[in-house]
Structures are given as structure tokens and as C-alpha cells.
Amino acid sequence: MSLEEMKIQLERKTSGSAQKLDRLHYRRQFLIAVEPVEEVYGWDCMKINRYFLYAHPDLEINCFTHFVLIGNIYDYEVPEKNNGDILVDIVKHGGGRRELFSFMKKYAGCYVLFIASDKPIIFHDARGLREIYYCTGENRIVCGSQPNLIAEYSRPSITHRTDQAFFDFYKNFARDSQWVGDETPYMGIKHLLPNHSLDINSRTVFRYWPDEPVRKLNVRDSVERSCSFLKGIMKSVVNRQSTAMAVTAGNDSRILLAASRELVKDIYFFVNDINLGPSHPDIYVPERLFKSIGQPFSIHKEDTGVDEKFREYYLKNVCLAESSRISYIYNIFHKKLADKILVLGV
Asked: Could you tell me the pTM of the whole model?
């Protein structure tokens, strides 16, 4: 098969007026299946080898040979490269899985890499920002971006767990709705953890990093390597997309600001004042800092009121979404920052 024949082929499914795509519905999400999922309307569909990839049209997909890149990946060494360029570099690098994982260390982003070979695997960025959930048993759905999305289109049908102790723990002890481990609220669906890959044939998980004893670096070497990486990644992000950065009194966000010193005119800087007030360090520290460097800085106040359609999709799109935060997510992130990629120091 030629490279041209193996390149991505997108088929935009059209639907009737009753099922017209709402762009917020499962926005930027994806499913991978072993058979067509006819119920998915309005999404891009790509068949590669025996698999069907369904992706919301706002989610960028790139394909080269049997490698599929979902989302955004950034190269700190050559910030001018786009997603397609980087994917070609990954494929051409060659080698086995060990060499692949070692090569991927230099990239950052919010992405999934799916290798649809005879021994297919899938993994995500180092922090697992582009999430992967997968079916542990036989199902037409292999994996996807949210467990409730998988359950909705699963066949055979996947249902919620019934053990109340599980939900009691989540409600009372899970800080900021964070899960512990790889469990989900659904029977037969698990969460792929950061620095792990999924063997799709066997549905087994393999931890690919660390792959050797972690070596200590002296402070000077650590600083030089970290600075070079952060500066290159920020330049790559800003080169490609309209960018916003939250800056507080914390070290993480101020380090990112320092790494972006040459790019400040191209970044929208802000902080969210959610019942903090002007005397809070997270408000007055960055405000004074930006005055000292002569750059604009926005302090967002929380507005009240949420569009009911947005509320519906917000609670549906993300499994067990926190409704307590919906007001400022709608009024700040959706209404003011929806056209930007957000860079946060965490």
C-alpha cells in the first residue's frame, strides 16, 4: 500500500435536521471502534486498518502510515513544526517500542498517539492531559476520551457500577473530583494512567517510563535543560495558536511567564478573581508584576447566570463533572477565552 493510500481519509457524516451537530456536544472528543458506529453523527470518521476512528470536527487528527496523532504536540527543539511535521518525524525515527517511547520524551502537548499496526498500541502525553479510557472486555468500542461517551455507544451495553462504597469515596474523599487509580464509574471501563500504554489486542497496560534508574542532575544542568525545554515549548504553542496564560502568585505560573519573556506581546495574561478580592496574593502579586513590566493583565470577575444548553452539555461531556464550578467556566473560559489555548502552571 502506498503512502498516499494510507494517508488520512475523512468522511464527514451528514445528518438530518433533527440530529444537527451542536459543536459543544462532546466537543474535541474521540472514539476508536472495531466496527462502524452509525449512531455517531456529524463527526469525522477515519478507517485505518481494522479500526474506525471517530473525532469531533474541532479535534485535529493527523495520520501518516499507520500512526494516528489526535490533538496537539509540540517540539521544543524546532518550534516552527506543526502536528503533521512532528508525526512524520516520529514515524521516520523508526525502531521498536522502547526507542519510540524514549524518542517521545522531547515532546509536550495534549495528544494521543494511536499505532494501528498488527500489534496496536495507544498512549498519551506525559501528563495524560488528552485522556484515554478503554474497555477491558470485548466490545465494538475499544477506547475513547470519556467513560460515559464509551458507555453511550458501547455494544454490548456497558452500565454503571453498583457498589455504593465506590461513589461514597468519590463524593467524600476525592479532592477536586480527582480519581485514584484506573477505576471509573462504569463496569468494564478503565482509565489509562500517565506514562502508560495500552496493548489493544490483549487490553494489557504497560508502564513505559521510567525505563531506567532516574539519574540525579546538578542544579545548573537542571536549570539549563528545563529553561531550554520550557522556552521552546512556549514558542511552539504561540507560533500555532492564540494563547492565554493564567498568572498567580505561585511559582509554577511565574516560571512559565519567565519562559515566555520574549513572547509576552503575543499572549493574553489573566487571573480569575473567584471570591478572592484585591488583597489576595494571587490577585495583587501578578497585577503589580505586570505593571512593572508594562504589559496588559486582565482580572476576570465571576459573572452569574449560565446558559441552560451549556449546562446540559457541560454536565454530559465530562464524566461526573463538578457543577459548582460551572458559572465561571461558562462566563470566563467559554465566553472570553474559547478561541485560545490555555497555558496553566500546575
From this structure: 0.91
